[in-house]
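Why do we bother with holo predictions? Because pocket geometry can differ from the apo form. Keep that in mind while you read this record for fe (ii) ion.
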Amino acid sequence: MKKIRFYVCRECGNIITATSEAAVSCCGNKLQPLVPRKAEESEKLSVEDIGGELHISSGHPMTKEHYISFAAYVNDDRVMIFKQYPEWGMQFDLPLYRSGRLVWYCTECGLLYQELILTF
Ligand SMILES: [Fe+2]
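The structure, written out:
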């Protein structure tokens, strides 16, 4: 699943995923898969062990014009998507203790990712 592609419709905000090549369209537009960019240190989500779960959060802007609209946890065999909403703090709890990748989509910055490496 690490090669999963994310598509976001600019018109309606629809989030679509594909595990392989696909012709994807929404609201009458053909969508291209988002190209993920490795997050800079300052852009990374913060990851906190809260006992049994990981609390993921970010101080990234969450205004109606500029916000993280979803985050996802991806590893070899699974994808979990956590919807986020403007004017709410960006945060979610990840009920997993396995290494993987965090991927998130900002309406201005695009698709970013960071590796989630767990040592316990
Ligand atoms: Fe952003």
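Residues 60, 66, 106, 108-109 surround fe (ii) ion (CB under 6 Å).
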